[in-house]
């Protein structure tokens, strides 16, 4: 009877017998461990490179963004509340907004969002709604002694809170529909009835 012999050129680690690991020769296990460590290192290196690239892109995008526009456009020019440009210095009259002219220089007074649905797209302080709700004017045309609304609601002291006529005007009830509460003094004694009571021809000087 011949004795069976088994090749002994490979040694097995008995400690792994019955474990979840495959019983591999020791030299092959060492190779796998080396490969695993190498893969982990390569993966970490790739992730680090990707993080650096992502950070660089984020910085580039942030720096490329335009400067923040003023939170409020409200400003004062003369006796009027106006529209503040992005330079935070230039203050436009209300009537200069959405007039098809880039009065701010960089066009923020003519943007689509501001001018696409007049007057509702404009800030309330830039407009004045007349006695007829469907009619509106720019707020700097209110109380200028001219009948811009057509019904004098923009010149009525009770409706528009206008001051009394200035020294360059003569207070009366005008004949001309162009005026509301007074007429320019330049019309006094011009040989034409401009006031219903003729005071422009006999009293005004």
From TrEMBL:
SMART domains: LDLa (SM00192)
Region (Disordered): 1-23
GO biological process: one example: vesicle-mediated transport
Residues covered by the LDLRAD1-like C-terminal domain: 163-202
InterPro entries named among the record's database cross-references: LDL_receptor-like_sf, LDLR, LDLR_class-A_CS, LDLRAD1_C, LDrepeatLR_classA_rpt
Domain of life (superkingdom): Eukaryota
Keyword Cell inner membrane: no
Comp. bias (Basic and acidic residues): 1-13
Membrane topology of this protein: Single-pass membrane protein
PANTHER family listed in its UniProt record: LOW-DENSITY LIPOPROTEIN RECEPTOR-RELATED (PTHR24270)
Name of the protein described by the UniProt record: Low-density lipo receptor class A domain-containing 1
Source organism of this protein record: Pelobates cultripes (Western spadefoot toad)
């Amino acid at each position: 009877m011949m004795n069976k012999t088994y090749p002994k050129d490979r040694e097995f680690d008995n400690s792994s017998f019955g474990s979840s690991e495959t019983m591999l020769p020791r030299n092959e296990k060492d190779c796998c461990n080396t490969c695993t460590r190498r893969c982990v290192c390569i993966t970490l290196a790739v992730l680090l490179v990707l993080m650096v690239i992502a950070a660089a892109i984020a910085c580039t995008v942030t720096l490329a963004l335009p400067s923040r526009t003023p939170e409020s456009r409200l400003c004062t020019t003369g006796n009027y509340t106006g529209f503040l440009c992005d330079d935070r210095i230039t203050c436009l009259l209300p009537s200069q907004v959405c007039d098809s002219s880039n009065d701010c220089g960089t066009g923020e007074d003519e943007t689509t969002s501001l001018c696409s649905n007049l007057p509702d797209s404009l800030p309330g302080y830039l407009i004045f709604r007349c006695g007829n709700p469907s009619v509106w004017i720019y707020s700097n045309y209110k109380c200028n002694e001219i009948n811009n609304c057509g019904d004098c609601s923009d010149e009525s002291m009770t409706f528009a809170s206008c001051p009394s006529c200035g020294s360059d005007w003569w207070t009366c009830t005008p004949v001309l529909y162009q005026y509301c509460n007074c007429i320019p003094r330049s019309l006094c004694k011009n040989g034409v009835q401009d006031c219903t009571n003729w005071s422009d021809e006999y009293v005004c000087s």
